Amino acid sequence: MFRRKTAKCTRVGINAKQLGEAKSMGLLNLEKKVKRTVTFDSTARPDEPLVLQAVDAGWHVAFSSISVREARGTDFEVSLSAHGRVPELGVWGQSSWGARWADRSSSERLRSILAIVSNRSFPKRRGQLTKGQSHQLRDAMILEAHAAARRDVFVTADARAFIKNGRREQLESLLQTRILSPTEFEAELHPRRSRRSPPGSPASSA
């Protein structure tokens, strides 16, 4: 393994001695891994065990700015400050100051997400939305923020909006990301535990 890496470096003008010196000085880390990213939607608490397990496992954890805004003045505000924030898209009547400016691609992405989560029933005019439609718009904005930031995994307990009836497959294809339920993400964090859990156990039936 070392010879293969050394040979590759030699071809670009770095010999074995220079490679060793660079590693000892901290200028080169061949074992460095890219940090995986996960966004939790507003169904998750920032201090819940699954979120903290993701941090301990080396994931970069973030919540959307919508979740951060809604947590102001609550017990969760301090807990959220320990995690990353994914900025929402500026939507008239929904977003606060500091949201991302909308461009053509982001606006089209939001429209496409809305079409999927609403089963193509979301109104084109957003002047007078019902409570359910406002909730769908908020859900779509959270997922759009995740996708715009090109993050790896979106974790949500809202299966009706993002997972059931083929929605997960459509959204993953559209946004080039992965959408997992909390149980599925926990299994990814602890693959050995999931394989060893016998049928009917809490870990396998969660």
Descriptive overview:
The protein is of the alpha/beta class and 206 residues long. The chain has a single domain, classed as Rossmann fold. The protein contains 12 helices and 5 strands. It has helices at residues 2-11, 16-24, 49-56, 65-70, 76-80, 104-117, 131-148, 159-162, 167-175, 182-189, 191-196, 202-205; strands at 37-40, 60-64, 84-86, 153-155, 178-180. The protein has a 5-stranded parallel beta sheet. Helix 3 links the parallel strand 1 and strand 2 (60-64). Helix 6 (104-117) packs across helix 7 (131-148) and helix 6 (104-117) packs antiparallel against helix 9. The longest helix has 18 residues, at 131-148. The chain is globular. Residues 1-13, 22-32 and 201-206 have low confidence and may be disordered.
Reconstruct the topology from this structure.
Elements (H helix, E strand, L loop, with lengths): L1 H10 L4 H9 L12 E4 L8 H8 L3 E5 H6 L5 H5 L3 E3 L17 H14 L13 H18 L4 E3 L3 H4 L4 H9 L2 E3 L1 H8 L1 H6 L5 H4 L1
Parallel strand pairs: 1-2, 1-4, 2-3, 4-5
Helix pairs in contact: 6-7, 6-9
In short:
With 206 residues, the chain is α/β, with parallel strands linked by helices. It contains twelve helices and five strands. It starts with a helix and ends with a helix.
Proportion of residues in extended strands = 5-15%
The total of helices stands at 12
How would a textbook summarize the main sheet? 5 strands, parallel
Oligomer: single chain
* Gyration radius over CA: 21 Å
Number of extended strands: 5
The CATH architecture name reads 3-Layer(aba) Sandwich
Return the structural class: alpha/beta
